[in-house]
Design brief:
Strand order of the largest sheet: 1-2-3
Radius of gyration: 30 Å
Order of helices and strands: EHEHEHEEEEEHEHEEHHHEHHHHHHHHHH
Length: 429
RNA sequence: GGCCCCAUCGUCUAGCCUGGUCUAGGACGCGUGGUUCUCAGCCACUAAACACGAGUUCAAAUCUCGUUGGGGCUACCA
């Protein structure tokens, strides 16, 4: 039985780097029918924050990486101490007294250590260069390397899949596995994700919290797809691949060794790919809070079918879901807010005659359908002997306040005859 | 500094293991054109890379070594 783990420290939010590590662990467990263990490395009481923990847990859930087991290192201090004392008894560790207390330190014996990494291949280290390793600090808490080894062994982790930055920890950990008589797991070190400016992801350089992507209106499937393409390729020139399919073909062997530079342009594209094909019902559900917050709808009581129609109208042109809130605002607002530049460009000449005429034509329509609206409009401009666009743009601005947007006849249809006439009347002298 | 990892278009990558099929493929982004009432979308096209140097070989993006560049670790942080 394959067992993998993701071990975040709640000293910061979950970001692209961490979630990519979580993804590959989760994916590997799914692909092999194994278990995905979540372990919270909260041994540093000072830096660990509940706020971060909640964000990590929520984001993981949102991404769909559900865990089979959950552990907190802060609740396992007695286990670490037990193993440290065993090493003490064996003579493999010693106590060092300081003003703060007693630390337990592991004696490093010089030797060659081979790490057989599933991604990087064989790497040789010389333990000669390692200092003796602190196991239990003088404040009684375990160090990272020690807690990590004890837990990975105790939780029967078979494959340690983690970031490249841990590669030099690996030989030190192997020493500990051997000293404790534990079976050494397989290691797979993922190439790091670098910021665009170079260097690793940090708060100042591209380490955007996953919860923030969520708030911006990225779909979790899109983000996962994007993550998937960072360091792994499904081959066959495929870019859009959903998680279920990835589970079928994923293998650690296909992960490349090269660090990836984070470039969010592709995420935007992928997000649009998913937005275009996503079920409008789901998108509508996700939009309700944001629309309610703006006061555009009453979440308890609104016309769902109407919202659905509007979602369909905008779906293909959205980069992030939240674009809808701004772009479709005119469907919800009582008063349209006209963009001054748009007004200057398209509504500076007097079109009273044309607007009045069009309103009359709309009134004359027995069946107020998109098709009929367009026919009536085309007929009218034909009679007037003018180009359609000469009128289309001004009408769009009058109705939506913007120069961009969906097709005018759809806009007219969904706005409804009364609102259209009302908004156009403002420009009739 | 020491130890370790990495190296294909601006970016993500395919190809590398098992040299010839690679005048190096795809995608994003960029640019151009088409479609439409605008934007988005869609369609078509263009520019764009094997870091460098040796070596092995009939033949190297693919194998070897070196150089350079990038990155990581070097804590009683995780």
């Amino acid at each position: 039985m394959i067992r993998v783990r993701f071990a975040p420290s709640p000293t910061g939010y979950l970001h692209i780097g961490g979630s990519r590590t979580a993804l590959f662990n989760w994916l590997y467990a799914q692909a092999k029918g194994g278990k995905f263990v979540l372990r919270i490395e909260d041994t540093d009481a000072l830096r660990s924050k509940k706020e971060y923990l909640d964000e990590i847990l929520d984001s993981l859930k949102w991404l769909g990486f559900n865990w089979d087991e959950l552990y907190y290192q802060s609740q396992r201090f007695d286990i670490y101490r037990k193993y440290a004392e065993k090493l003490l008894k064996d003579g493999q560790a010693f106590v060092e007294k300081t003003e703060k207390g007693e630390a337990i330190i592991f004696k490093v014996v010089g030797q060659k250590i081979k790490v057989n990494d599933l991604i990087l291949g064989e790497i040789d280290f010389e333990a000669e260069s390692f200092k003796d390793q602190v196991l239990i600090k003088s404040d009684g808490t375990p160090t990272y390397n020690f807690a990590c080894v004890v837990d990975d062994a105790d939780m029967q982790i078979t494959h340690v899949i983690r970031g490249d930055d841990h590669i030099s920890n690996t030989p030190k950990q192997i020493l500990l596995y051997q000293a404790l008589g534990f079976k050494v797991p397989y290691f797979a070190h993922l190439p790091l994700i670098l910021s665009k400016e170079g260097g690793r992801l940090s708060k100042r350089k591209g380490a955007t919290a996953i919860s923030e992507f969520r708030n911006m209106g990225y779909l979790s499937q899109a983000l996962v797809n994007f993550l998937l393409l960072l360091g792994w390729s499904p081959g066959e020139n495929r870019e859009v691949i959903d998680i279920q399919e990835a589970v079928k073909i994923f293998d650690l062997k296909n992960i490349n060794k090269t660090a990836a530079v984070l470039d969010l342009d592709k995420l935007d594209w992928i997000n649009n790919q998913y937005l275009k094909t996503e079920d409008p019902e789901k998108l509508a559900d996700q939009l309700i809070p944001a629309l309610a917050e703006k006061g555009y709808i009453n979440p308890q009581e609104f016309d769902r079918n109407y919202l659905l129609s509007l979602v369909k109208l905008f779906q293909a042109r959205l980069t992030v879901l939240n674009d809808f809130v701004d772009w479709a605002d005119f469907f919800f607002q009582k008063e349209v807010r006209i963009d001054p530049q748009a007004q200057a460009k398209h509504l500076s000449v007097d079109l009273s005659k044309e607007f009045k005429m069009f309103c009359q034509r709309l009134d004359g329509l027995e069946d107020f359908s998109i098709e009929n609206i367009e026919t009536a409009f085309r007929q009218m401009v034909g009679e007037l002997g003018i180009q359609a666009k000469v009128l289309i743009h001004p009408i769009r601005v009058a109705l939506t306040g913007k120069t961009i947007g969906p097709g005018l006849f759809e806009v007219i249809y969904y706005l409804g005859k009364e609102r259209v006439k009302e908004r156009m009347a403002k420009w009739i002298k």
